[in-house]
Amino acid sequence: MIDSVKKRSWKEHLHEIIYEADTKEGKFFDIVLLIAILASVMLVMLESIDSFDLKFHTSLNIGEWIITILFTIEYTLRVVSIKKPFKYIFSFYGVVDFLSTIPMYLSLIFIGSQGLVALRALRLLRVFRILKLARYIGASNKLLFALRSSSAKIAVFLFFVLIICIILGTIMYMIEGAENGFTNIPKSIYWAIVTLTTVGFGDIAPQTALGQLIASAIMILGYSIIAIPTGIVSAEMTKKDSDIDTNTQSCPACLKEKHIEKAVFCYHCGSTLN
Amino acid sequence: MIDSVKKRSWKEHLHEIIYEADTKEGKFFDIVLLIAILASVMLVMLESIDSFDLKFHTSLNIGEWIITILFTIEYTLRVVSIKKPFKYIFSFYGVVDFLSTIPMYLSLIFIGSQGLVALRALRLLRVFRILKLARYIGASNKLLFALRSSSAKIAVFLFFVLIICIILGTIMYMIEGAENGFTNIPKSIYWAIVTLTTVGFGDIAPQTALGQLIASAIMILGYSIIAIPTGIVSAEMTKKDSDIDTNTQSCPACLKEKHIEKAVFCYHCGSTLN
Amino acid sequence: MIDSVKKRSWKEHLHEIIYEADTKEGKFFDIVLLIAILASVMLVMLESIDSFDLKFHTSLNIGEWIITILFTIEYTLRVVSIKKPFKYIFSFYGVVDFLSTIPMYLSLIFIGSQGLVALRALRLLRVFRILKLARYIGASNKLLFALRSSSAKIAVFLFFVLIICIILGTIMYMIEGAENGFTNIPKSIYWAIVTLTTVGFGDIAPQTALGQLIASAIMILGYSIIAIPTGIVSAEMTKKDSDIDTNTQSCPACLKEKHIEKAVFCYHCGSTLN
Amino acid sequence: MIDSVKKRSWKEHLHEIIYEADTKEGKFFDIVLLIAILASVMLVMLESIDSFDLKFHTSLNIGEWIITILFTIEYTLRVVSIKKPFKYIFSFYGVVDFLSTIPMYLSLIFIGSQGLVALRALRLLRVFRILKLARYIGASNKLLFALRSSSAKIAVFLFFVLIICIILGTIMYMIEGAENGFTNIPKSIYWAIVTLTTVGFGDIAPQTALGQLIASAIMILGYSIIAIPTGIVSAEMTKKDSDIDTNTQSCPACLKEKHIEKAVFCYHCGSTLN
């Protein structure tokens, strides 16, 4: 891989730095990006604290613009270095990157649109992507593998939980009614979810004897059926782990990942992997 | 199976469409029914939101009548197409179907009985029935199998939880008394269930030192014994899955299901399966 | 066993009826006792509801006396039919039986002592004893076996949880202080238990930023370590079940139970088992 | 080992008593220390209860000084009996021991510094160390082993939970805003943690329909992903236990522990183990 690097154009070189993490520069870029994202989220948090914002408004604003410029450069490079820019622009991460960059520019035109900087928190999701590149993610891979292979069962379980919550929420609405806080069916369903998942905020609580009886049944149900997802994942985890080695490259043409170590062509679009 | 269809009467044909899902028409019927049920539940939800009901009262009312007429037709067809109608009428689903259909007619005679339309949420249970017919329910079957084979142990566990809650609730009533919100024993038992299941609404909370000590014990107990149902289901899940293939037919005479693929006679009443 | 019954005295016969469940009379006695206990608990519950007590005070009082007389007879028979009465009288169940019987007699002398009837709820524990006698408790036995063999690990876990709660409770007391509801260290420890076990009443909640940070850590800790008892029990459950057959006899001399089927002498005191 | 004891100096003898538990005196020292720690924590608790402190202020103060003097002696002996004192002084336990001893002396100079005695609760951590020496800790060792080998996976899981909470907390801040109790992003993240871990204090609860919808999603997510740490630990527990025997000695030179039974030299620094 190191040999072939020399012949490539700057675009291909940039692509490897930004989208992959096999080279030294790639790893360095990822670490810088990681720090920038964490700093940007920290900034948004501090701005949201009124007492802090009052004291350091100017410093925070300067910080915002530095982050915005950095993100703008990164976004431009990402668009430029890829073969099919629109594939990136309309991908989930592309949209998130765009939304994280635009609010400060918008705030120059529309006052108040600065509040949208909080959307930047979504960039934290990229942390998972970056970390995926690191080597110590064997643990994470096994976790994901176990989750993926049990996802069908968990989906059935969640679907079951939802239906139960709709039915029980509706029944509670009929029993308790608006005078006890169950003002409408969607709110009652919200309460049923709060109760079944054993969260129990207590902002809405049944007052009638019958309501409390059914609430008890919901709680015991919730307390018992938590055994189901747990049992599913436990069973999956005790199975043998799969041992397919994938690397951190992403195809320059179609962005697909999880290429088998030493792959030369993309398994999806057939482009040469560099 | 397809050959034998030709010779059957329209009743038998209708039975296959409504009660089974092996044929094209059967699947289509199920999907239409699924949509109708979901729409009817959506309608009930929207009606329960006061602000929404005020604006769109007439539209919602028209929607209600459309659903009611559809359900009436379905109910009639179900009764007509089965060999022993009373078996269906007095079955759980038969009663639910009836209760979902009747409220709008009742509202013509008794004002206010319209509130019963919420009972229609129970029809959501039929969703499980309909989905059972689909092919991708291998996951769901395995889940159910694991649950069924561990149901005896879970019943013992739930019984234990209930007894513990009654005892602890009574003790808390003696310690805290009516002045701290534990107004009577049933309410104290309700509180014990809220606490043991780790829901913790907070509408009732112990105030005395001794009460808080016992509450702590209940919480730690509840936190620990959740391991029991989880352990049961986990153990069951790690066992091998059973591999008996059943189809989606239901007997036209006795409604029994879970006939082995290719069965010709009902295992329960001996009627010919068509 | 049936042969040897004939030669025994009425005391031995009574012992078999009351303390065992192998004979027809023994089973009948157990069922009657079960109903009496459930009725007595029901009565206590109804009395605690003020509105109900006002209406039916006399009927409830009569019911109380009937239960008291029945329990008095049972208690006397238990004392009479056993070889070493003091062993029973000072056993846990002996004390509970006594406390369940005495309050009504006391209420004749000391007004107000009637409140102690609630202690009768403890008799519900005997339900487990009675049910143990039934045959269908294979499930329950396996559960108990798994719990017993993992009890050492669970004890270590609970001890760990308790120490953590004491430390964290003390720290929270120092951070939040009396002005935020953490009035003293025991109360702070109570709060830590409420939080770690994910119950979360919300009657006390941290107000300072540092307090909320530590609270977050406690919650995530509690959310994660619940995996430990669950893992322990799951591991125990997946092991093979033991298959030692014990019967329901209890030694007439020393009350020990769990004699191996067909045992002739008590494994503990050497008395003949009848 | 018993033979070599005779030739050692009093320092080495003291080291064995204080830092190890293989000899009779060592075990006795540990038990006395355990009682002293528990007594000191008890004392701090009682002082924190205002009503109690008012009544018994003098007795509590005398108790404090007795504990302080005992801890001072212990601390001095620990420093004296070890070959490299600074290694102990700046170790975690060394700092905790120092902080537990100093507050009463400080209170002579600075009024109010007495409040720091609560730091003494941290000494409870030493309880784990002392108990480790006892023989019945097979259970605890297995627990720790299972936890350690699954710590990488659990760390990934916790990291994932944290990122999710930051993102969801930020989104909830944008939706609900300060008027519904979500006054700033850190507080919203705190709320997200409270909700995801199913604690649910209820001091902050979403009021808007959209907020409640997202809250429902967070709750169901939290309710489902608890299966992950549970599955990890369950899988680890079902694996075979390791069987390496370590003893309770700690190296007099470098404090390292977990020497293999019958080791003569420290595996870390090569000093002779006595």
TrEMBL record, chains A, B, C, D:
InterPro entries per the UniProt record, alphabetical: Ion_trans_dom (IPR005821), VG_K_chnl (IPR028325), Volt_channel_dom_sf (IPR027359)
GO cellular component terms, A-Z: voltage-gated potassium channel complex
TM segment ranges: 28-46, 58-77, 89-111, 154-176, 188-206, 213-233
A Pfam family hit: Ion_trans
GO biological process terms held by the UniProt record: action potential
Gene3D superfamilies, per the entry: 1.10.287.70, Voltage-gated potassium channels. Chain C (1.20.120.350)
Residue span, Ion transport domain: 27-237
Major subcellular site: membrane
Gene Ontology molecular function, alphabetical: voltage-gated potassium channel activity
The keyword Transmembrane belongs to this UniProt entry's keyword annotation: yes
Compartments where located: Membrane
UniProt keyword annotations, A-Z: Ion channel, Ion transport, Membrane, Potassium, Potassium channel, Potassium transport, Transmembrane, Transmembrane helix, Transport, Voltage-gated channel
Membrane topology of the entry: Multi-pass membrane protein
Name this polypeptide is given: Potassium channel protein
Higher taxonomy: Bacteria, Pseudomonadati, Bacteroidota, Flavobacteriia, Flavobacteriales
